[in-house]
Amino acid sequence: MSEKIKLTPKILDLQQSNDIYMSMKMIILSNQVNYNNAQFTDDFIQGVINDKNKYISIPLVVNRTKIENQVYNSLSHEYSDGELKTDVVGSFVDFWSETDDTGALCLLGEIRIYKRYPNTCAAIYELYSSSLLEFSCEVIIYEYLNTEDNIRKIHYNNGLNQLFGSCIVSNAAEERSKPTLLIAEALDKDLLNSSKGDENVSEVNKEVFNKGNQTKRHGKIENSELSFDDIESQIYNILNPIDPQSNDRQYNYWTRETFQTYVIVEDWNNSEILFKINYSISGEIVSIDPKEQWISMEQIYQPKGTNIQAELNQKSEEVIQLNTKVEELNNLAVFAKEGHVKLEEKIKELEAKLEQVTKEFESKIETVTKEFESKVAGLEQEKTELSEYKTKWDELEKQNKIKELNEKYSKLISKEKFDSEEVKNAVRELNESFLKDIVISEMSQKMKEVETASKGNDDVIILINEKGKDLIPGTILSKYGIK
To answer: pLDDT of 163-176, one tens digit each?
Structure first.
């Protein structure tokens, strides 16, 4: 049975690599006993490295709600009811090993953190700056090598014991999980005001995300998985790219207003230069028009308390809505006209089809009715014929039985008795039981006569009847089929 064990490694390197993600190098675990009395063997570390293609893309997770709301003291794996209730914010892309100054063999990994979550990135930077950024790796354990001295030794176990994720947590189990280097100057400029408490910092380092201005938003984003924050963040990164060599951002424009399909941007250093830039969304990727398609805008001065641009935007929206309504009505009129013609054609088609189906149905009913009546007549004829045949058969069978009884009992019953009306009726009614009784009665009478005649002599003859036996010999009765 597998067991999940959680360990806490630390960052070695965090850097701003491009507009999509940050790259982070970190110590995942070592071959030394950690605070959880768990110790990974050298072959576990080497096994992960040898099978790195198996582990590339395992996730980096965190509770985004907590970390973005600066609840830093209770970050955990959020394990409940058999589920890890955390959010994926990055993934591993490489693994290798190094030996630190103490001689401990360490497993290291590189993670890419998605920059689509700017608030999460800012929180990670803040934790790093406060030396509080800690990570706990998650390992599935199917079997320990041994548990000597209460230390759980974890070997690679032919890949059955395996690494499957890493989570930002509040408390570390690996003493080596302290960050040692951070390369994030561009992130520092975008998310934090690094000039606080330092008068010698250059002006460029005082710049913050979107030049510290709040973007005005109009309408709402529909049919997209992205929010205004996501859209503005991607457009900001496109307009102000980072130099991959120096890791410095080139500040060109900041976003003044965001609409459903375009943005109004202002030159970073010249407030007189404004552009309207159309953007589009494909999946989760935002694209903007090439610069030659940007529309140059002009700053309009207006009395205080009057927002001419807003009024123009409102009127523009109204015109668009009216044009849309007109187009819808035109389409509806054309559709109604075409639909009426098509509806009449469809009704005629359905009526013709109904008439055809009705005729076919009536014809089928008539045919089936005739077939049924013919079969009924045939069955009635068969029934009559069978009834007549049965009557004749029963009569013939009765005559044969009468003949059989006459032949059988004319030999057993005296002629005088056999010619009597009661015997004739018994034969006609096939009452063989009555005939048997007459035979037995006459046989008994004859036996009595023989016994009386014998008593007239001087000798005394005693007939002994064995219990349970008939005085009339069974052979005589059975000879004539009487039981």
So the answer is: 888 888 877 556 55
Cβ-Cβ contacts under 8 Å for 232 (sequence gap 6 or more): 210, 215, 255, 258, 263
421-428 vs 432-455: helix axis angle to the nearest 10? 140
SS3 of 46-75: the string is HHHHHCHHHHCCCEEEECHHHHHCCCHHHC
Q: Token pair for residue 104?
A: 């401990």
Q: What is the DSSP string of 176-244?
A: T-S---EE-HHHHHHHS-TTTT-TTS-GGGG--GGGGPPPEE-S---S-S--HHHHHHHHHHHHS-B-T
**Cβ distance 294 to 277 under 8 Å?**
yes
Token code pair at residue 105: 């063999």
SS3 category, 77: coil
Question: Contact 265/274 with Cβ under 8 angstroms?
Answer: yes
Are 9 and 137 in contact, with CB atoms under 8 Å apart?
Answer: yes
Give the C-alpha separation, 166 to 136, whole Å.
6
DSSP assignment of 417-465 equals HHTSHHHHHHHHTT-HHHHHHHHHHHHHHHHHHHHHHHHTSSS------
In this structure, what are the phi and psi dihedrals at residue 46, rounded to the nearest 5 degrees?
A: -65, -35
Confidence label for 408 from pLDDT (cuts 50, 70 and 90): confident
Helix (H) or strand (E) holding 430: none
How many residues make up the chain in this entry? 483
φ/ψ of residue 242, rounded to 5: -100, 135
How does DSSP assign 343-368, residue by residue? HHHHHHHHHHHHHHHHHHHHHHHHHH
pLDDT digits (tens, 9 = 90+) for 251-276: 899 999 999 899 999 999 998 899 99
Four-residue CA torsion sign, 206, 207, 209, 210: positive
